Amino acid sequence: MIIRPYEETDEQSWLRCRVLAFLDTAYYDNVLREKERYEHPAIELVAAEGEKIVGLLDIELDTEPGSVCSNGEKTGGMIWHLAVHPDYRRQGIARMLLNEAVQRAKALGAEYLEAWTRDDEWVREWYASAGFQPVDSYFQVHIDGGEELKDIVESRVPLLRPVSLFAHYTGSDKAYILSKFTRVHETVRYDLELTEPQ
Ligand SMILES: CC(C)(COP(=O)(O)OP(=O)(O)OC[C@H]1O[C@@H](n2cnc3c(N)ncnc32)[C@H](O)[C@@H]1OP(=O)(O)O)[C@@H](O)C(=O)NCCC(=O)NCCS
Description:
Mean pLDDT: 96
Shape: globular
Helix content: 10-25%
Order of helices and strands: EHEEEHEHEHEHE
Bound molecules: coenzyme A
Largest sheet: 8 strands, mixed
CATH topology of the largest domain: Aminopeptidase
Number of domains: 2
Distance between the termini: 37 Å
CATH architecture of the largest domain: 3-Layer(aba) Sandwich
CATH superfamily of the largest domain: Gcn5-related N-acetyltransferase (GNAT)
C-alpha cells in the first residue's frame, strides 16, 4: 500500500472506494459518478494497493482567504473528500493520507485545514484523534414527500408537485427542526491549525 498523488486512471477505483466508504455513514446516498475537478490548486492523494484505491483525500486550497474555505482571515484547505475502503479501516490509512496532505498544504502556504462532517460519532472521533477542533455547525435536512413537505414549499409551476427537498438550517430553533422532520443531520465544521502558536 502506498500513498501517492491521484492519477486520471484511478478514477473508477476512486469512485468505488468512495461509495463503499460512505455506505454505512450519514452520507450513504451522496454518490458521485465522476471525480470532482477543482477550480483552485488542490492536493489529491490516494492510498493504493496495486491498482486498487483503498483510501482517498482531496483538499482544495484557498488562493486568498475565503476563496474556498470559511475563514475570511486565513488561507486554508478544504477537505472535500476523505474516505477509506471499509475493508481497510483502522490500519492508519486516513492518518497517513492526512500526514502527507498536511506537509504538502503547509508547503503551499495553507494556515489551516477545514472539514465538514455529519453526525457519525466515530467519524467525529477520527477528526478529534487527528487534532481537529469543532468550530461551527448547522443542520442539513432531507424532507421526503407527504406530511413533512406540507406548508414548507409551494410550486409556482402548474402540475409540478415537489416530492422531496434538501435544505440547510442555520437558525437557532434546532428543537423545532428536530421535532418536525425525521432526517436531520447536524453537520459540524472541524478545523486543524497548521501554524505553530506564537
Ligand atoms: C473516518 C475514516 C476516514 C477513518 O479512516 P481509517 O483509515 O480507518 O482511520 P485511521 O486508521 O487513520 O484511524 C486513526 C485513529 O482515528 C480514530 N478512529 C478511526 N476510526 C474510528 C472509529 N470507527 N471509532 C473511533 N475512533 C476511530 C482512532 O483513534 C484511530 O486510531 P486507532 O485505530 O489506533 O485507535 C474512515 O473510517 C472512513 O472512510 N469513514 C467513512 C467516510 C467518512 O465519513 N469520511 C469523512 C469525511 S466527512
